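User: Second chain of the day. Same drill as before.
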Amino acid sequence: MPEDMSNPLSRLFADDQQVDLELLAKILYPYVRLLKSPARVEFTAEGEELSLRQKLLAYLLARKALKESGLIETEKTSPGEIERETKWSGGSIRPTLSRLKKDRLVRSDTSEDGGYYIPNHQVPKVGEVLRVKGDS
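Assistant: Same format as last time:
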């Protein structure tokens, strides 16, 4: 919808397709580095200190950054793919993703390119969760 500055309601509309790249980089910087070839996520020492819940959120945000950078086709990912890429226990990943979904920080999609992802409008909230020390 085009922005009509004469309409006071125009500032209420948001495009969920857009993500604030500056905010995304600011949130992720202490916790991860993105590698280009092959495209993957590497946790920093500070990132390794996060709880599994926070690590999953950081990982999913990092996938969003990889997608926005054109290095991967979709940010959506499965628990199995997370387990393969991170070496974290699938038995811990799945229930944690379920809790994150219940908390509405993460969504899952059952379409062809389905998987777990963080909706763009939740990026600021996820940033808040990552800043809390000892979050579980």
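The mean pLDDT is 90.

User: Great, on to the next one.
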